[in-house]
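Researcher: Good morning. I'm working through a list of sequences from a screen, and I'd like to move beyond sequence-only analysis. For each chain I'm collecting a predicted structure so we can compare shapes side by side. This is the next one on the list. No need for commentary yet; just the structure.
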Amino acid sequence: MEIFKQIAPLKAYLRDLKCQGKSIGLVPTMGALHNGHISLIRASKAQNQVTASSIFVNPIQFNNQNDLIKYPREIEKDKKLLEAAGCDVLFSPENEEMYPKKSILKLDFGHLDKTMEGEFRPGHFSGVALVVSKLFNIVEPDHAYFGQKDWQQFAVIQKLTEELNFNVALHSVETLRESDGLALSSRNLRLNPAQRDVATVFYKGLLQARTALKNGKTVGEIKPQVRAFVEQYPGVRLEYFELVDSKNLNVLESVEQSILPIMCIAGYVDEIRLIDNMFVN
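Model: Good morning. Structure tokens for this chain:
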């Protein structure tokens, strides 16, 4: 696996591979890798001759500085996982390489970045979109791979790619879960054993909500039940539960209002924030 920390040599290396006619897949990450990330690497390897990944904890997408400070960083372990998975290229820049000057650019996605995550994490998706734009410009991938767990992020990146005419095919890869249903997430590393035991409540809440929606219940009827179920445990707090159209993120009241509705949930186990989602059908 070739490892780069600077943009210029990475671009030169990838340019040579492109001249050889090789397709490039990109898996952007913030590190603290788990099997969910490795599934993205495998998806890329199945479609491309070269798979590149990035590890960069992007400071401008954190609206909570404490969250940025505590975000898990395991770069040496991550390198070994990527190499074992067959990743060909790793880009792991320092902040100064990605942001040589303080970034002042703000991106607005209208409704897409104002609901759910956007409501509770203002500015988050502008930061995500800016770093993804940088990575697309640096790597110039043919394909890019993202996890379904961050579905709203994927919708924003789809709009970004469409608006800026990035010549890259986007792929959302199904969320991997632990045997008890907990969605794999880098933030799970911050959970102590007691917190880990109750963290599945968000997944279980989605399962109950899906059954209720399929039985004809409206979101308005379900929301109080989801909140009561999630918050039955001390230290667990629901931030939001929404049913939205998976394409445009319009908030729905019932499953009949969309061809492909998705439930999205977020909340806290003590100070650790977790998100999850699930398609109704």
